[in-house]
Amino acid sequence: MKINLQDLPYKYNDLEPYISAKTMEFHHSKHHQAYVDKTNKLSEGTEFLDLPLEEIIIKSSKDVQNQALFNNAAQVWNHDFFWQSLSPKGDKKPSEKLLKMIQSSYGSLEKFKEEFKQVGSSHFGSGWVWLILENGNIKIENTSNGDNPIAHNQKPLIGFDVWEHAYYLDYQNKKPDYIDNFLNNLINWKFLEENINL
Length: 198
Ligand code: MN3
Known about the structure:
three-stranded antiparallel β-sheet; mainly alpha; 2 domains; minor pseudopilin epsh fold; binds manganese (III) ion
């Protein structure tokens, strides 16, 4: 069973002006595709070949011998999750229920955004910022390279790509602006709610 590149849930230009069609096309059809291809290549002739993607990630995460497979398989999953974490629909606010959860963890939506931006801006090198569910609360975490919450038995709610390839064409060194646009214009609150089961 081969891992396939999933289609985007919207068109390349649907996230403009916040993320350009050019960035989306490179990111999906080149970077994401390359992770899919490498995962298939590295699984050939191994015990990973017929496993579903999530099992490949969990199994390979426990073994340094399979670091390359882990990084590529996790990056396939991370991007599938990231595309869904973005919404072109401009649904700019969380629901009342979700807002209450955010307020109980962070005091206010603004403080939550500040904290998320701080974690994303100060992340050194390639990686991800996640929202996870922990003891019924929303929590911000970051991981390096391809590492992700499912490798640590955590429940991911939102994934946000802070690798340079995600924003450099559009933002160059202005990574905080990329994060602002994610939080204010692109974050898929509905996907977050569905993942919490609100
Ligand atoms: Mn990426």
